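User: I'm putting together notes for a lab meeting next week and I want to include a structural view of one of the chains we've been expressing. I don't have a solved structure, so I'd like a prediction I can at least talk through. The sequence is below, exactly as it appears in our construct file.
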Amino acid sequence: MIAYIDASVSGVSGDMLLSALIDCGARLEIISDICRVVENLLNCKIKVKFYEVKRKGIKAKKLDIISDSKFNIEDIPRILDEVEKSVEFDREFVENVFKTILDAEKAVHGEAHLHELSNVDTIIDVVGFSSLIKDLNIEKVLCSKIEVGRGIVKTSHGFLSSPAFITAEILKKFKIPFRARINAEASTPTGVAILANIARFDEIETSRIIDIGYGAGEKDFVEAPNVLRIFLLESEMKSEYISILETNLDDVTGELIGNLIDVLYREGALDVQVIQALTKKSRPSFIIKVICNLSMEEKLSKILIKESGTLGVRIFRAEKRHVAERKILKRKIKIKNREFEVRYKISVENDVKHYKPEFDDIKKIAEELKLPFKDVYREAIKRF
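Assistant: Thanks for the context. Below is the predicted structure for the 384-residue chain, given as structure tokens.
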């Protein structure tokens, strides 16, 4: 399922995202469970309210996380450790969101400190968003341009212009498209940091609308209803956005390239290709292409530079690929009166199923039985 987030009119905040997701059918109890864990850890009281409001005549849902309690950066790991015991969420995503916020804080203040974002609702917003996304089985998030607002806002540092300094740093780092038409702070650093780490800022895809959630913000704007919309969409064919990292190497050995491939796969690359080429002065060289998720760009680029000594890495973003629906199925098969478990990769396209046994499993059985790989592979296909 795809989520398209329309933040083009009134911006985005953590509570608006949660409100809209719950309005789409995600379970409010997940937020209550997260709040209970945080209450116990920080010895505080948190009140959760979910109700309907109107913003300029538009009905929307409003989630309030009410608490005066705060948390420190050092509290984040233990809070996540405890929440993981009762609620499913993507820990890497949550940690990346807080890293984004702290990096922006450091860029503005010279130190990594949460300031206004140290209220407990910040961690509930981030963990809650990840949990609700999983609850709705959302596989991909698209987003419009973000309305950030303009004018002067009051902060703990005095009066500042909008967008807030932290928000502006995040917009700059992730190259997020935005507009500024509302005469107020329309988007919060937390909301923008969440979208920066999960969303592809692109037009809505041709799809069937399954549901629409409406999440209300705190303020009443003069210019527009303060409502964020989330469309749940069903795509005719599953697609995803990936990054392609590319570099040229002309002074390396085959052993170095072999090790580089192993390291890249181990660290999260989806695919690695090595292409022979000729560069300037007719020197033989290799083009290394790495396909990865958007979130892995920086990490794998650093590995390419560190392991190969290359002076630069080209990054191609917004490469959209269509992928068939896929899953892994485990089956027990018997070969030479011995039973083995084999994983089969199943893909479905236009109601036609394709399957093939996992290479590593077949290789392991072939080595164990001292049989040719092709014979074991043929048996695995036959016994599926």
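A couple of points you could mention at the meeting. The first strand starts at residue 2 and ends at 6. The chain has a mean pLDDT of 89.

User: Perfect, that's what I needed.
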